[in-house]
Amino acid sequence: MIKRLTKELSTASNIKDKNNRLSVKSALTSALEKLKLLMRVDMTNGLALFADSQKCLVLTPPRPIQNYLYKCDRCYHIGTLKKLYESNKTVYLVVYVTGNESYIYELYKGLGNNDFDKYVYWSRSGVSLQKNQKKGGQSAARIGRLHDEKHKRYAENVANNVSKCLDKNPRIQGIILTGPSIKKHQVLKEFNRLSHHNIPFLGFVTVSHVDDDWKNVYEIIIDHQMKKDDNLLKKIMNFEDSKNVFGQKEVYINLKNYMLDMVIIHKDHPDIDKLPMIERRCKSKACKLVIVSSRNAMGDSLLTNFQGVAGRLRY
């Protein structure tokens, strides 16, 4: 890389515009100096440099860079690099509703395991809701109407915030509503009325505090994943369907020839520890990778008779 940048630096002297020439030479000089300081840095996954006349940024991505790219432009090109930072985890949305405030979490489930990462995705939103009031005389009807309107606005506000989260992250697989309040049901009603998203609702979980044990939430997600695995296995283990292929050898040959739309691997496959490499290979062949964990008869048959590997042809 140093040789290539040195060659580009000598070529930059031919740029006619003085400002452009100085900017390019300054950026290349900065990149070369930074590279010389990084000679002992671990570059197993490659290295990305973004340099201009004032600074040089260096990134080592979590997954290997597949190709070499040199661009001299007025803006940084991060399309290729951005894909390397994308998570391969399944995402779920957990909405905590108290009746006065709400918290929205994105919950990440690991591919092929039951590991979860939880963090607040949306900032806390709170309102002061009016409580039920029996007294009021002639104003009782008006006070009751204002009470209902405020509670409806609260539910609409939470539902709109959930929709914004779904707009920002299309990889979300399902929604769970938690909290001590019965407002969870009203929030779901408003979400179904206002939102255009076709996202499955997985269930309600009653907890007294946002930091309580999320065991029930995890169980709902794992149960949902098991049902998805069962439905997929019913489709894949249909031996009359000519689009299904079985066994490591058949799957590898079809994957190599770009003929597979999906690769299915059982989580108890002996090479499951090589999952990152398998995922990269599937991605390079425009093929989806699915890890199934069903322990029913079909899952056992896939693991015992076909080495835990199957695939589905594109056509």
Describe the 3D structure.
The protein has 315 residues and is α/β, with parallel strands linked by helices. The chain folds into 3 domains: 2-84, 2-Layer Sandwich (Translation, Eukaryotic Peptide Chain Release Factor Subunit 1, Chain A), CATH 3.30.960.10; 90-227, eRF1 domain 2 (Nucleotidyltransferase, domain 5), CATH 3.30.420.60; 237-313, 2-Layer Sandwich (60s Ribosomal Protein L30, Chain: A), CATH 3.30.1330. Helix content is 40%, strand content 22%. It is built from 9 helices and 11 strands. The strands form 3 sheets. The chain has a 5-stranded mixed beta sheet with strand order 5-4-3-6-7. It starts with a helix and ends with a strand. The model has no long low-confidence stretch (mean pLDDT 79).
Question: Can you lay out the helices and strands and say which pair or pack?
Answer:
Layout: H1 2-11, H2 18-37, E1 48-51, E2 56-59, H3 79-84, E3 90-97, E4 101-109, E5 116-126, H4 140-168, E6 172-178, H5 183-194, E7 201-205, H6 215-236, E8 244-246, H7 248-256, E9 260-266, H8 275-284, E10 288-292, H9 297-305, E11 309-313
Parallel strand pairs: 3-6, 6-7, 9-10
Antiparallel strand pairs: 1-2, 3-4, 4-5, 8-11, 9-11
Helix pairs in contact: 1-2, 4-5
Would you summarize the structure shown here?
By secondary structure, this protein is an alpha/beta fold. 40% of the residues lie in helices and 22% in strands. The mean pLDDT is 79.
